Amino acid sequence: MNVEETIKTEKIIPLKQRSIIHLSLVENKINEVITNALKPYEVSLQQFNVLRILRGQKGKPANLSTLNERMVTKMSNTTRLVDKLITKGFVGRETCESNRRKVEITITNKGKAILLDMDNAMKNAEDMLLDKFTTEELNQLNKLLDKF
Amino acid sequence: MNVEETIKTEKIIPLKQRSIIHLSLVENKINEVITNALKPYEVSLQQFNVLRILRGQKGKPANLSTLNERMVTKMSNTTRLVDKLITKGFVGRETCESNRRKVEITITNKGKAILLDMDNAMKNAEDMLLDKFTTEELNQLNKLLDKF
DNA sequence: CATATACATTTGTATATACAATTGTTGTAC
DNA sequence: GTACAACAATTGTATATACAAATGTATATG
Fold it and tell me: In the predicted model, what is the mean pLDDT of residues A15-25?
């Protein structure tokens, strides 16, 4: 991906500004590819992340604060995100016995099953996005990103 | 920024998946910092980018397709984005004489003036985001991002 | 020149997200 | 035990964005 070509400019972009723009362009591409990969399952990237977090809980239910903490992109409104997953039958929700302010959110078997399919789609998307990278380069990239 | 800490997981994340997540987290941070930097001017990042493109035109008016081509994040609806900038008095719009299907969008003096202020705010934001990077490292980062 | 097609923008509508205010619950100080 | 603050989730509202359909304009074809 060439920055100047992508945003159709002939100007010389200062290095710092170029780096920021570059990261945004890459993120846009990532989002596009992943959103496409998830389209057949009719879940958004955010919803997919919630499912993944719930599976990571290994049966232990999660509440909204926990979900929010662990999400890659924090949302101001996790309630409605969960609402959508409930409608689809992928998660369940009930109020916590020990602390009735909290809710307990769990992934259903249907949710687990569809998540397995999505794993494959996601793996393909990742492979596609990163096919030009060696392991060495990915390590290098991660190291640089740590500086943020 | 530590990925595992940020999304509160103890698991080992596969390298490719970790790279994608890492990029998303970085982009989230960038967005947050920049959105904050632009808040005093009451323009969104998208609107700022339109203003910057228009300035780059050096007086030559732009039409919607041109704007869309050059935007970092492509939008499905540039009309309404421009609407908002017109309301604020930062840009002007009139239908093109030679081809009445097209519109001519230009930045106003008021728009240019405020853009100068925003330049400073943006430069600060960039410096803040990238303060841990050497020039060498930024070049390395850009080179890696080219692989996308 | 009448019709069809392509083009550029605008409008309509549904969904997504951000932010603020509200509701219900728990714990604590008096 | 009543009043108050802190907590967790939900609801309301405004704005943002995606996608599809509609409008108006220009160009090509017979």
Answer: 97
Distance in angstroms (rounded) separating the CA atoms of residues B146 and B132: 21
How big is the A-B interface in CB pairs under 8 Å?
138
User: In B65-75, which positions are buried (b, 16+ CB within 10 angstroms) versus exposed (e)?
Assistant: ebbbebbbeee
pLDDT at B97 over 90: no
CB–CB contact A28 B138 (8 Å): no
CATH topology of domain A44-123: Arc Repressor Mutant, subunit A (1.10.10)
* pLDDT average, residue stretch B30-57: 95
Provide the CA B54 to C1' D21 distance, Å, integer.
29
Model confidence pTM above 0.90: yes
Minimal C-alpha gap between B105 and chain A (Å)? 18
